[in-house]
Amino acid sequence: MKLKLLVAAVIVVCGLLYLLLIRSDIQDATLILLNGVVYTVDDRKPAAEAIAISNGKISGVGTNEEIRRAFRSANVIDLHGKAVYPGLIDAHAHLEGLGAFLANLDLVGTTSPGEIQKLVRDRAATTKPGVWIRGRGWDQNDWQQKSFPTHELLDEAAGDIPVYLKRVDGHAVWVNRKVLEIAGITAQTPDPDGGKIIRDSAGEPTGIFVDRATEMLADVLPDPPREERMESILRAVQSCLRVGLTGVHDMGVDLELIGIYKELIQSGRFPFRVYAAINGGGAAWKEYMDRGPEIGLFDGKLTVRSLKLYQDGALGSYGAALIEPYSDDPSTRGLTLTSADSIRYFSDICVSKGFQLCIHAIGDRANHIVLNSYEEAFKRNNVNPADLRFRIEHAQVIDPKDIERFAAMGVLPVMQPTHCTSDMYWVETRLGPERIRGTYAWHSLVQSGSIVPSGSDFPVESNNPLWGFYAAVTRQDHSGWPEGGWFPDERLTREEALKSFSIWAATAAFEEDVKGSLEPGKYADLIVLSQDIMTVPPQQILQTTVDLTIVGGEIVHSADAIAIGQGMTGR
């Protein structure tokens, strides 16, 4: 009898020890997501049902049963079958510009100069003395009369109030006579190198400044105070989180803006990630040449390791540098803004100091010049191009002979899908039927071995990455035009489009090991959408909204469509 009791006691003790051993294998998680359709963007494990998050990073990805068995948490979200994706990354954007755009006149979609005149007149009625009227988004290609407007319309609307209106692409500015007077611009003022003052038949400035000519207004345009810049950033970040962006590549920052980022992050008001490219040649670049790159500051919230230059202007304002003249204006081939000597100098500095070089190039001539300059720099410095990841921003019009050079040289074409669907109505008029074949050539670039990191160039385009995703997979506008897509052979697949806004964008910032896919050890940056954009009909992508945005394991946007449930103890 005693022996039986002893054996029973041993069995009980062993069982308790076994249960304790099992329980010791269960990890505590700060947040668990269950019952989802998880697109990991990890080719080794592309799909899952559940995710565990611990201390700001992903600690587990797997089936519901696997996550339940391995983790416990007081915070559990039942996704009820909703789709989960990595937090989306805009690989070319202007964060402060978006914040300012949201506060100033929104001219996107205006259909005539007269419509803009009315908006300016209404704003003038409430503008305080000494304050300029600012706006952005006009595009003469959207008007019935497609010629550039003149200052007289703004003079009538605003009188002596200075008016400064950026074109949608940011490469041209429309001002009134008051600004011309303040800046001292007259018929005798010469065009600067790389820029153009549009003039009337008598040689008088009309109020339109293109590319480098816009810099002539920089000295008189009031700089926004630091607090206003800070508010613009906060406004832009909240807008981005609502549309599923968890980070951006901010293309063209100055020293004060970098300081603002650091201040906001340290004060806990910046639930976002920025990969910053310094605007070429200014005080920030001089300081960072001595300091060197700053990588992954504040738990990955800020990296400063790139330099942004401009090789040409934009197609819409005839500033993009083309090999042959514009089809609708044979008098010009566009503008080149940076000399070969300057590119050579900056290339060598970037190689020696460990910076990535990002050059804006839209026209085929500009892309050819930059590719040649990069190739010479790689040979001159005897470096592996893949280690540098030099970039061409936009790469909109490429000579077919240059397409394969991107992959062969390890140069990244960073492109914006919505630029294509905004420009497709008129771009063939600019380029003609042959040259158009090398325009927005996403599929050709991918087929040649390149990755194509995607962005929006906001505020030039909407910051909603789902609009970019839709444009990439359809090459149609929001009404579904044209049927079948504009040059549909250049569409991306949905898998490629998702990668372009996630892992490919992360790769363009040297950050593919810490973000861009849902894998254990990476930052817990992810989104939950109202519909599965990988399966719904294309038009429904545009109606999809963001239910949840998580950055570093913290819920930073919630549409109240998903609730945090009861804790889970694991088993």
Please specify the SSE layout and strand pairing.
Blueprint: H1 2-24, E1 27-28, E2 31-34, E3 37-39, E4 47-48, E5 50-54, E6 57-62, H2 64-70, E7 71-72, E8 76-78, E9 83-86, E10 88-93, H3 95-103, E11 105-106, H4 113-124, E12 133-138, H5 151-158, E13 163-167, E14 172-175, H6 177-183, E15 195-199, E16 205-211, H7 226-242, E17 245-253, H8 255-266, E18 273-279, H9 283-291, E19 294-296, H10 297-300, E20 302-310, H11 340-353, E21 356-361, H12 364-381, H13 385-388, E22 391-394, H14 400-409, E23 412-414, H15 417-423, H16 427-435, H17 442-447, H18 465-474, H19 494-500, H20 503-507, E24 526-529, H21 538-541, E25 546-551, E26 554-558, E27 564-565
Explain what the structure shows.
This protein has four domains: 2-86 and 555-565, Urease, subunit C, domain 1, CATH 2.30.40.10; 96-217, Diaminopimelate Epimerase, Chain A, domain 1; 230-306, no CATH class; 311-510, Metal-dependent hydrolases (TIM Barrel), CATH 3.20.20. Helices cover 35% and strands 22% of the residues. The chain has 21 helices and 27 strands. The strands form five sheets. It has a seven-stranded parallel sheet. A six-stranded mixed sheet has the order 4-3-9-24-25-26, covered by helices on one side. Strands 11-12-13-14-16-15 form a six-stranded mixed sheet, sandwiched between helices. Strand 17, helix 8 (255-266) and strand 18 (273-279) form a beta-alpha-beta unit. Helix 3 packs across helix 7, helix 4 (113-124) runs parallel beside helix 5 and helix 11 (340-353) crosses helix 12.
